[in-house]
Design goal:
This protein has helices at about 15-30, 35-45, 50-55, 60-80, 90-100, 115-120, 150-155, 170-180, 205-215; strands at about 5, 105-110, 135, 165-170, 185-190, 200-205. It has about 220 residues and is α/β, with parallel strands linked by helices. It folds into two domains: about 5-15 and about 85-215, Rossmann fold (3-Layer(aba) Sandwich); about 15-80. Helix 3 (about 50-55) crosses helix 4.
């Protein structure tokens, strides 16, 4: 491992419940449909906004898709501000350890620019991350499991994909990383989801990851 790439949502920030709540309210308000947790996991979780909106709103009009996506994300950010939000346990210690070891790291996220700006503001991410190296969804970035996001991020870090380690939280994210040529992928999860055996490990926070990595290097 010569560099680390973090997915953000569900990885550095456990915000799945916030997205569930926002999507449920938004779909109920705009489509008058009541979305169950099971439907969320089947039709929303792990998918990018474009795919979700095409599914629910039955449209391929990119202008309309982008408008709906931005509108939903505004509601999500409003909801975040009503909650006591924080980065996942051990995140900051892990950032500091990577800096100390001079290992470059950045974020590859399906979030849009407005959300990335929001995260940089509320979590003060500029203490650890170079904003210009972050890859986010500009409305045209192919969604995972397409590998483009991880190929672009490795290039931003001036690294070969095979020299990068990825931290993910979804099966489509793991697939995207592997398709990009990244061999070392760790999954962080709040649950006991069954991930494929090809991942390097499954952890629940970054304290666990540091213990695992440093033990391997002893």
């Amino acid at each position: 491992m010569k560099a680390v790439i973090f997915d953000f949502n569900g990885t550095l920030f456990f915000d799945t419940p916030l997205h569930i709540e926002t999507w449920k309210k938004y779909i109920q308000k705009t489509l008058n449909q009541n979305l169950t947790d099971e439907q969320f996991m089947q039709r929303i979780w792990g998918r990018d906004n474009n795919a979700i909106i095409q599914d629910f709103y039955k449209t391929d009009d990119l202008d309309r898709i982008h408008w709906i996506s931005n509108d939903k994300e505004r509601e999500y950010r409003k909801l975040c501000l009503t909650k006591d939000i924080s980065l996942v346990k051990g995140s900051i210690r892990f950032f500091e350890a990577l800096k100390e070891k001079e290992i470059p790291f950045t974020i590859a996220t399906g979030a849009n620019k407005e959300n990335v700006d929001f995260y940089f503001d509320v979590f003060e991410l500029d203490k650890w991350f170079d904003y210009d190296q972050v890859i986010y969804d500009d409305g045209y970035l192919p969604g995972k499991p397409d590998p483009t996001i991880y190929k672009m991020t490795a290039e931003n870090l001036k690294m070969k994909p095979e020299d990068c380690m990825v931290i993910e939280d979804s099966k489509v994210g793991v697939e995207a990383a592997h398709r990009a040529g990244i061999k070392e992928v760790y999954v962080i999860t709040e649950s006991t989801c069954d991930f494929e055996s090809s991942v390097s490990g499954v952890i629940h926070d970054f304290d666990e990851l540091m213990e695992l990595l440093w033990k391997q290097n002893d």
